[in-house]
Amino acid sequence: MATVNTDAWDKDTSLVKIVFTLVVSGLECITGTAGNSFITAVHGAEWARGKRLPTGDRILVLLSVSRLLLQIWMMLENALSLLFRSSYNQNTVYTLFKVVITFLNYCNLWLAAWLSVFYCLRIATFSHPVFFMMKRKMVGLMPWLVWLSVLLSFCFSIPFCKDTFYVHVNNSIPVPVSNSTEKTYFSETNVVSLALLYNLGIFLPLSVFILAATLLITSLKRHTLHMQTSATGSRDASMQTHMGAIKAISYFLVLYVFNAVVLLLSMSNILNTNSYWNTFCKVIMAAYPCSHSVLLILSNPGLRRAWKPLQHLVNHYLKGQTL
User: What pLDDT score does 186 carry?
Assistant: First the structure.
């Protein structure tokens, strides 16, 4: 069985590194939690009023809920792994956190991929018959595909409960400057199982997202080039909208791919627990759902309209605090 081993020393993590990780990732998680709560509340209020949500908005609500749970769980894991390491490194607790965070990350990746597919099918224009067939059939199947992906995320996460992650403890590591010994934790990862689960849980939605985002960007760019010859009046405003959409989707694509790579590194345990690269991964994993949610609010006209009154209240409150 191929494995990768990393060691985690109880006394090796500096106070500065702990504070930096908790503060930066905590602020990212709090910002993301606020943004995802806002998205959920806006569409939840529409649903409570009896308004039937469009398919895209329903996917967006599920994505926001999954990210809300993900960021709360990430804050708990960061606090426990950095401040209460002996409790966190118990095999049951360690495996529980890995399984839950894997399931939520898989859901997050799949739902973001289906949201990209939905907007690609609704906005992009291609004359190929395969695209027309997908546009006609997949929009109606989208709710079923979303729930199927949640079920697949659960199925791909359950194997992490067994034969993938282990934590061993060694109580007899000598300390050179004294006659005492130091407790050391060794985390072990089954690379074969991890590679299989990574391909199933991350590579599939990653491929779907990249394909849908690339097709959408290509379609918007082609349409923008056709409009440039008469970029006046309403056409000029429409072209600016298209350019803004291209930039937003490009940002989404970069964030998505970057997050998938960092997620693989974090799950594989190839990085030392106390290394700066591990801290970097924690910060990036917290930054992706936060940044993506903020971009969704800024790029969605309905969410922007709902945010304006709240923004005035926040600005008024901040001005009152500075007086």
Answer: 45
